UniProtKB/TrEMBL annotation:
Residues 138-163 are annotated as: Disordered. GO terms for molecular function: phosphoenolpyruvate-glycerone phosphotransferase activity. SUPFAM superfamilies: HPr-like (SSF55594), PTS system fructose IIA component-like (SSF53062). It comes from the Bacteria. This is Phosphocarrier protein HPr. Component of the dihydroxyacetone kinase complex, which is responsible for the phosphoenolpyruvate (PEP)-dependent phosphorylation of dihydroxyacetone. DhaM serves as the phosphoryl donor. Is phosphorylated by phosphoenolpyruvate in an EI- and HPr-dependent reaction, and a phosphorelay system on histidine residues finally leads to phosphoryl transfer to DhaL and dihydroxyacetone. Keywords: Transferase. Signal peptide: none annotated. The keyword Transferase applies.
Amino acid sequence: MGAASAQLVGIVFVSHSEKIATGLVELARQMAPTAQLIAAGGTDSGGIGTSFDKISEAIAVADTGDGVVILCDLGSAILTAETARDFLEESDQYRVRIVDAPLVEGGVAAAVAAETGGDLDAVVAAAQTALQLTSANTFPARDDGAPAGTPRDDSQPVTDSSASAVTSRTVILVNKDGLHARPAAEFVNLASTFSFPITVNGTDARSLLSIMSLGLARGSSVRLASTDPLAGPAIKALADLLESGFGEH
């Protein structure tokens, strides 16, 4: 399969529509600018349908050494993708995963996970988080027991004096559109560089879809927290990013 340069998991978008596949690559590219994102949409003649040759070529281009995740729009696209995978060398087949996940949400989450250097399992897991989120904003319980999204007045990192100490800081979003896709991806990229478990209003700071599901708009109170006592500098860096407004005015 493809020769390695940058070792990142590749993402292939398979759709019956060429425009949908290329549009998804364009969308995901806004949040994952260096990830290997390949469109495989439509038939060989440009019509509606799927193409064994297009998917096979996309897999070859997307694989830079760490494997490929494929997301499909409809059942017959999955069948064509499975056929293309079956025609690979047996030693390569295990590195190509076809993920049952929503094409848009799962694809974007997978792309961000690949962008941050996630391995094949991590990128698959990121895509699958889309199956776990509903269209309604269902917030997980906050790490201090209060409902997620509840404001906290702790603008500097503080350590709670409870049995399981929590280092936290609360900031107010200032950018006009809040944590929409691009700034959310920038935030997740930074959070993924830290080894500490950090939450955003109770949800995983490294999960793009979970953070976007919070619906954090301008003026929202955002609580960053960690049970790791050494997480203070990481929380400060994330808080500074939020307070910067991501260059949006």
